[in-house]
Amino acid sequence: MLAINFTPFPELTTNRLILRQMKREDETDFFALRSNPEIMRFIPRPIAQSVADAFQLIQSINDGIRKNESITWGITLNNKPTVIGTIGYVRMAKEHHRAEVGYLLSADFRGQGIMQEALSAVVDYGFQQMKLHSIEGIVVPQNTASASVLKKAGFQKEAHFKENQFYKGRFHDSIHYSLLTPLV
Question: Which intervals hold domain N-acetyltransferase (predicted)?
Answer without folding.
Answer: 17-184
